[in-house]
Amino acid sequence: MPKVQEHPDVPEGGKKYGAFQTSTDRDKKQIYKDGLLKNTLPTVTTDPNKLEEQARKHLGVRSFNYIAGGAGEKATMDANRLAFRQWKMIPRMLRPTTHRDLRTELFGHKLESPLLVAPVGVQSIFHQDKETGVAEVATEIGIPYILSTAGTSSIEEVAKASGEGIRFFQLYWPQDDEITISLLRRAKSHGYTVLLVTLDTWTLAWRPGDLDNAYVPFASGIGEQTGFSDPVFRRKFKEKHNIEIEDNIFLASQEWELAVFSGAAHTWEQLALLKREWEGPIVLKGIQHVEDAKMAVQAGMDGIVVSNHGGRQLDGAIGSLEVLPEIVEAVGDQLTVLFDSGVRTGVDIIKALCLGARGVLIGRPWVYGLAIGGKAGARDVMKYLLADLDQSLGLAGIQNLAGCNRSMVRRVQCSGDTISSQ
After folding, report:
1. 69-84: buried (b, 16+ CB within 10 Å) or exposed (e) per residue?
2. Beta-bridge partners for 106
3. Which residues contact 361 (CB under 8 A, 6 or more apart)?
4. 127: Cβ–Cβ under 8 A, 6 or more apart, which residues?
5. Rounded CA gap, 93 and 73, in Å?
6. pLDDT at residue 351 is higher than 70
7. For the segment 156-187, what is each residue's pLDDT rounded down to a tens digit?
8. Catalytic site residues?
9. Is 347 in contact with 89 (CB distance < 8 Å)?
10. pLDDT tens for residues 122-152?
């Protein structure tokens, strides 16, 4: 009799994320089975082009505009999405991709996938589960959580919620060195292993969605828990005003905003302070120019994030995916290149990996999930992305992340290409 070829085993330690929709594993949510047998549909849409609109129904105008909005006419946001549309996958056939392996290693951490939870501030305006809830979810799924300086939960609270999970700290870099050092020491002592320094937000951009509603959450103390819980900032505030922060939140908010969004840019030379005070990898977020990437290498940085802040800072900027290949070619063998800005699907993630990114930060999608269903909604969105990534790798003929390379994609500019979901 003809020999029946057996399917290869699942890679040892690897996870079958693609089974999320059809799995017979009772520990995994089964979308089709729940629908057929229980008439239960997903709480959060699986359609990336409908996710933002579903979130809109769960948020007030100000909260929605804050997360969905961008700088100026949103030209940079459009550029981010169009860039993904103009890179096409070139699938391969008859390859051993029955089981895929998404595992990778970043900054000494062995990870189950290349995804990271991007730093997003003021999460309590989207749902009461806020940063602590999302940190719990990240640990549950096995994805690094990056805490924003603009959090509505403190460094210590998120560390507790994260538990044994991997966590990084994103720094909005104060002009006051004593405050900066205090933040770094708090983060390091509470298990944050990587410092992510955002370079493009030393002042807030022109954001019509917020301006038309005269809304910035920081003015009322929202998103300033990092500062309000910092002992050095508290001491300095009391010395200056002879009152506690809680006695005048509006005044304290003004002082903290002046510290982190001062309108005064830092310099490359000032990175020496961070290198001296932080024991661990330092990653610069907001790099879009090859020369800046080279300067990051010269400054002794461990990584960069090719990012335009999701189109929230400089309007009319180039899409981040457009510059990723040339940056990787210039410095990819000298430091770790991460990517964010405009990622909405599993295939988007594959394209970024094929163009040289080692890891991909996810922002708006999980925030929309958080708005719709709290931390469970954020978890669903991240699981959707992992399932889409896993299955799409298999369909593209890619067995593991080492197979994500330039031979799998081609840039094709078609007149019919349009932006999809923001």
Report:
1. bbbbebbbbbbbbbbb
2. 109
3. 115, 116, 117, 118, 146, 305, 307, 338, 339, 340, 343
4. 133, 370, 371, 374, 375, 377
5. 42
6. yes
7. 999 999 999 999 999 999 999 999 999 999 99
8. 309
9. yes
10. 999 999 999 999 999 999 999 999 999 999 9
Quote the distance between the C-alpha of residue 225 and its chain's center: 20
Q: What is the DSSP string of 79-122?
A: HHHHHHHTEEE----S-S-SS-B--EEETTEEESSSEEE-----
Identity at 62, one-letter amino acid code: R
Contact 258, 264 (CB under 8 A): no
Q: What band does 25 get if pLDDT is binned at 50, 70 and 90?
A: very low
Q: Report whether 135 contacts 165 (CB < 8 A).
A: yes
Task: Kindly indicate the confidence band of residue 233, based on its pLDDT and cuts at 50, 70 and 90.
Answer: very high
* Upper half-sphere CA count for residue 406 (Cβ side, 13 Å): 8
Sign of CA dihedral 52, 398, 16, 134: negative
What is the spatial distance between Cα 117 and Cα 145, in angstroms, rounded to a whole number? 5
Greater model confidence, 413 or 304: 304
The answer to whether 227 touches 218, Cβ cutoff 8 Å, is no
* C-beta atoms surrounding 280 within 10 Å: 16
User: What is the 3-state secondary structure of 241-306?
Assistant: HCCCHHHCHHHHHHHHHHHHCCCCCCCHHHHHHHHHHCCCCEEEEEECCHHHHHHHHHCCCCEEEE
pTM of this prediction exceeds 0.90: yes
Residue with tokens 């290869």: 8
In which element (H, E) is residue 361 found? Answer: strand 359-362
First CA to last CA across the chain, in angstroms?
55
State the number of CA atoms in the 13 A half-sphere of 227 facing the CB: 32
**Longest pairwise C-alpha distance within the chain:** 90
3-state secondary structure of 45: coil
Q: Which residue has the tokens 């295939």?
A: 347
Q: What is the CA radius of gyration of the chain?
A: 22
